[in-house]
Each structure stands twice: as structure tokens, then as C-alpha cells.
């Protein structure tokens, strides 16, 4: 289990995003080590990775959505389906991984990457207009949603420097059923699952937790 590439994005402007700062979705592999640290609250802070851009801080970035990982194996699956090459970083991920099931990671699961960095799984990606415009594939949001393999967001537990080739070690795996894929399904096509995501406890992204709590609240 390892990091294939650490990917950084620079801001650019396109007609598929209305964010005032453009978008940093076009991420490219970094040449050397990258420092990773908690960025600060959502709305005022972006990515945990030094040199990476989160242009739309209304909807992305912040401490609970600080790092995004996507498996190379899942990129390969999409390559075959779309019939086009997808480079590391093509889905806007900060970390392109190899050798582990990112979508099978549990909310609250912790990864040690390299000698120092520890990350904790918090939530899933939600496909948006910018992602669809960047990929430029017909019906992309629906296709991505049906696959239920969205990749994982993390918060930073212990900061550190990382680089391509660093090993990934799972150092904590909680005892519940709420995987990244399970949470994604609950938030999209299977809302009846939402009450069950609360089993992930405080590790769950606050916005995901609030959505699940609304589902379980008694109706007047």
C-alpha cells in the first residue's frame, strides 16, 4: 500500500465553474516532498497540502475535508469505461494510491503515510458541476454516483511531509459498518441508510452527521 503521487492544483478559470476564485481541480503530481498540515475551518481555509489550491472554499477544503484520496485502481476502471487516459490527479485527488481499497475505508479509519503524517477518514466526495465540466463526459454525475466509488476525504491528525512512493499503513480501523462507499450511497441513492451512518460517531464530517441527524429527527 503506497502513495503513487502527491498532486497539487493551481487556480484556473473555466465556464464550468462559477466560483469567484476559479477551480484547482486540475491537479498534477509534485516533483518532491509536500508538507501536509490542518488548514483551518471550512469557509476560510482550503487544502492541507502546501502549494495546492482550493478555489471554492464555500464547498471544499477546511479541516474536515483537508485531503482527498483516490485509488489508481479506480482510475484504471474509469479509463477502460471512458476509453481515454486518466493521469494521476485527473479526478482532482491530492493522493493517488495503490494497493488498498479507498472506498472500503471506514469513517474514522486512520492512515500513517511516510514517517510522520497521520490522516483520518471523514467523508466522501460529492460529484459537482465543476467535476462534470472538467471531465466533459455526458451524464457524468449520474454515472459517477451509480458507481459508488467516490474516493475519501481526510482530516489531518498529525502533520508531516509526504512524497510519491511513501508507504501507507492503516493504524486504526474502527468497529462499525460505515465505509466511504456506504456513506456515499446513504447520501445519494439510498437515503434510508442515513440513520446507520451515525454509528461512525464524532469522526464523521459534521455536515454528513447533520444530514443523518435530520433524517432521524421525528416529524411533527
How would you characterize this protein structure?
The chain has an eight-stranded mixed β-sheet with strand order 2-1-5-4-8-7-6-10. It is an alpha+beta fold and 220 residues long. The mean pLDDT is 92. The termini are far apart. It has helices spanning 72-82, 129-135, 140-147, 180-187, 194-197, 206-216, and strands spanning 2-9, 27-29, 34-36, 67-71, 95-98, 110-113, 117-124, 152-158, 160-162, 168-172. The protein is globular. Strand 6 (110-113) and strand 7 (117-124) form a beta hairpin.
Give the arrangement of secondary structure elements.
Layout: E1 2-9, E2 27-29, E3 34-36, E4 67-71, H1 72-82, E5 95-98, E6 110-113, E7 117-124, H2 129-135, H3 140-147, E8 152-158, E9 160-162, E10 168-172, H4 180-187, H5 194-197, H6 206-216
Parallel strand pairs: 4-5
Antiparallel strand pairs: 1-2, 1-5, 3-9, 4-8, 6-7, 6-10, 7-8
What are the main properties of this structure?
220 residues, alpha+beta, two-stranded antiparallel sheet, 22% helix
Write down the oligomeric state.
single chain
- Please estimate the helix content: 10-25%
Our measurement of the CA-to-CA distance between the termini, rounded to an integer number of angstroms, reads 49 Å
Number of strands: 10
Task: Return the string of H and E elements.
Answer: EEEEHEEEHHEEEHHH
**Could you give the order of strands across the largest sheet?**
2-1-5-4-8-7-6-10
| Number of helical regions | 6
Task: Write down the overall geometry.
Answer: globular
Query: Could you name the ranges where pLDDT drops below 50 across 5 or more consecutive residues?
Result: none
Q: Give the averaged pLDDT, no decimals.
A: 92
What class would the helix/strand composition place it in?
alpha+beta
From the alpha carbons, calculate the radius of gyration and give it in angstroms: 16 Å
Beta-strand content estimate: 15-25%
Reported for the largest beta sheet, the result is: 8 strands, mixed
Amino acid at each position: 500500500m503506497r502513495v503513487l503521487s502527491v498532486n497539487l492544483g493551481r487556480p484556473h478559470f473555466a465556464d464550468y465553474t462559477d466560483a469567484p476564485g476559479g477551480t484547482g481541480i486540475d491537479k498534477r503530481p509534485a516533483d518532491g516532498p509536500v508538507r501536509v498540515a490542518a488548514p483551518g475551518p471550512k469557509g476560510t481555509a482550503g487544502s492541507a497540502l502546501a502549494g495546492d489550491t482550493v478555489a471554492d472554499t464555500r464547498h471544499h477544503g477546511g479541516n474536515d475535508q483537508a485531503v482527498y484520496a483516490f485509488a489508481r485502481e479506480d482510475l484504471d476502471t474509469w479509463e477502460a469505461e471512458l476509453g481515454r487516459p486518466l493521469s494521476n490527479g485527473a479526478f482532482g485527488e491530492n493522493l493517488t494510491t495503490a494497493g488498498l481499497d479507498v472506498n472500503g475505508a471506514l469513517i474514522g479509519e486512520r492512515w500513517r503515510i511516510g514517517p510522520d503524517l497521520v490522516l483520518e477518514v471523514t467523508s466522501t466526495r460529492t460529484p459537482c458541476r465543476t467535476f462534470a465540466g472538467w471531465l466533459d463526459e455526458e451524464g457524468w454525475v449520474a454515472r459517477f454516483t451509480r458507481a459508488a466509488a467516490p474516493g475519501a476525504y481526510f482530516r489531518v491528525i498529525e502533520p508531516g511531509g509526504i512524497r510519491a512512493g511513501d508507504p501507507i499503513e492503516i493504524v486504526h480501523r474502527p468497529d462499525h459498518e460505515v465505509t466511504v462507499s456506504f456513506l456515499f450511497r446513504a447520501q445519494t441513492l439510498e437515503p434510508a441508510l442515513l440513520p446507520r451512518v451515525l454509528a461512525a460517531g464524532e469522526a464523521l464530517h459534521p455536515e454528513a452527521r447533520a444530514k443523518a441527524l435530520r433524517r432521524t429527527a421525528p416529524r411533527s
